[in-house]
Amino acid sequence: MYVSHLNHILLEGRCLFQGQAVFPLYSAGVCVAGNCRSCPCTYRTLLSLRTFISSNSLGSAGFWLLGPGATLGSSYGPTNTRLRCHLGLKTPPLCELVVGGEPQCWSEGHCLLVDDSFLHTVSHKGPPDTGPRVILSVDLWHPNVAAAERQALDFMFSPDL
């Protein structure tokens, strides 16, 4: 269901899509099995990343869509032990991420690393015909978090299965 809906948004319903949609592969450290089966190459790539946070509730990964005219209000991420990697898949003009007062822009085929523990906002100010902004977002361990600290955080924030 998710995949056909995602394809409809990307291929057919560009100007009808508003707001935000998420197609999660991992949510709070738990694999969304049906979605991962729908995206086997992406799933295998996630598992190959040494720093992907896949075993505690601080980690998530998935495809995020943001429709034209949408703005996500200011927020802080829950921790500074992770960095969010945003891979730009479809990045229309006038899409912006502001982190800690510094504007950032996505670029198709490139990664943008974000420390979302800083105040951040997201907006897509493009016209409806530009379609949604689409990124693959993956939570990675911050490089300053040592292996022993990662193990302790995995234990403390183990997802409720």
From TrEMBL:
Family annotation (Pfam families): Asp_Arg_Hydrox (PF05118)
Key word Transcription regulation present: no
Keyword set includes Heme: no
GO MF annotations in UniProt: dioxygenase activity
Protein name as annotated: Aspartyl/asparaginy/proline hydroxylase domain-containing protein
Family: Belongs to the aspartyl/asparaginyl beta-hydroxylase family.
Ranges for domain Aspartyl/asparaginy/proline hydroxylase: 22-143
InterPro entries: Asp/Arg/Pro-Hydrxlase, Asp/Asn_beta-hydroxylase, IPNS-like_sf
Keywords: Dioxygenase, Oxidoreductase
GO cellular component, one term: membrane
PANTHER family on file: ASPARTATE BETA-HYDROXYLASE DOMAIN-CONTAINING 1, ASPARTATE BETA-HYDROXYLASE DOMAIN-CONTAINING PROTEIN 2
